[in-house]
Amino acid sequence: MERLKYILIVAVCMLFLGAAAAKAEDGDAKKGETLYNMRCLVCHGKKGDGNGAAGVLRKEELSGRVLEIRPRDFTLGLFRFRTTASGCLPSDDDLLNTITNGFPRSFMTNLKSLPVEERKALRAYIKTFSSRFAEDPPCEPIKAVKPKWVGTDDSVKKGQVVYKNMKCWECHGETGKGDGPKSNDIKDDWGFPILPFNFLTGELKRGSTPEAIYLTFTTGLDGTGMPSYEDSLNEESRWNLVSYTMKLMGKLDKKEAH
Ligand code: HEC
Ligand code: HEC
Asked: What angle do CA 55, 199, 222 make, to 5 degrees?
């Protein structure tokens, strides 16, 4: 009997320790709240609805148009930069990447120097703003494995055809300046006007690696009107599109010059 009691106590202790370890791994939301109030509240707001004191941020694009940038409203649980399929929640790693790297063109600075536990704590707190994180089943991340031929002239040419056929130009413009015929009428899911990416800036929010660009077409950018091409384009066509968009951004020219 004594022995059974002992085993039970040990088992319960192990459970607690396990839970504590899991919590540290997932991030501590309470600690995250303090950090959020210090570092994020000014833009994303007390309730995580994007209505912080900073208000709407403005930036002039190369095209001369002014981009109105709104900090994300976390309450709908819609995220742009995911490795998961369209409509899915981002993975924990996706959110950590966003918090770590921030966004160019959106005034959100990177937090690479912040200890990883603090970045995880921030992530845990961000997840409390939308009930989707408690309700939705997690989605499998999509892997982007770059074929060797990405960036070759042949692939760029094929990608140009895909860009034309899939009507990327309707939003992004024929030369990639973000000035296509539909570009003035796009609204995000919150009802605010949004401009398509101007490839000539070369400053991708998700990051400029071929894999990041591939994920953008594959997962779509939820909440922005930019669709997912996972079902309508095979993998090869999507990688050709990566080659063409890198060309539009001048990234291949730089490589050749080296
Ligand atoms: C200067 C304002 C500003 C600050 C401060 C800021 N953000 Fe943001 N954040 C933005 C803007 C603007 C966006 C929308 C970016 C876009 O899609 O253009 C955004 C988007 C996001 C997203 C959504 C990413 C996605 O995939 O849709 C997350 C997550 C996020 N911020 C987390 C944070 C966290 C955590 C902090 C604090 C450590 C923080 N932000 C601080 C402005 C800010
Ligand atoms: C209905 C309009 C629309 C269509 C069609 C469209 N996009 Fe987009 N795209 C957008 C918008 C809007 C954004 C800007 C989102 C943002 O800044 O957060 C965007 C952003 C992007 C980005 C930048 C992502 C980043 O990390 O900053 C890339 C790359 C991109 N689109 C490629 C494409 C390609 C290639 C196609 C065709 C296969 C395409 N888009 C079709 C509207 C569209």
From this structure: 55
Q: How far apart are CA 108 and CA 54, in angstroms?
A: 12
What is the residue-level pLDDT of the chain in tens, covering all 258 positions? 566 566 556 555 555 554 444 455 688 999 999 999 999 999 999 999 999 888 787 777 666 777 778 899 999 999 999 999 999 999 999 999 999 999 877 788 899 999 999 999 999 999 999 999 999 998 999 999 999 999 999 999 999 999 999 999 999 999 999 899 999 889 888 888 888 998 988 888 888 899 999 999 899 999 888 899 999 999 999 999 999 999 999 988 755 443
Q: Among 221, 228, 231, 251, name the best residue to mutate to test ligand 2's pocket (greatest count of ligand atoms within 8 A of Cβ).
A: 221
Phi-psi region of 194 (alpha: psi -120 to 50; beta: other; left: phi over 0): beta
197 CB near ligand 1 (under 6 Å): no
Q: Is the CB of 206 under 6 A from ligand 1?
A: no
Amino acid of residue 102: G
Question: Does 252 sit in the ligand 1 pocket, CB within 6 Å?
Answer: no
Residue 68, ligand 2, Cβ within 6 A: no
What is d(CA 171, CA 86) in angstroms, rounded to the nearest whole number?
Answer: 19
Task: Quote the ligand 1 centre to 71 CA distance (angstroms).
Answer: 6
CB atoms within 10 A of CB 258: 4
- Tokens coding 66: 């002014």
Distance from residue 2's CA to the centre of ligand 2 (Å): 66
**Terminal C-alpha separation, the chain:** 76
**Residue 193 contacts residue 70 (beta carbons within 8 Å):** no
| 43 alpha carbon – ligand 1 mean position (Å) | 8
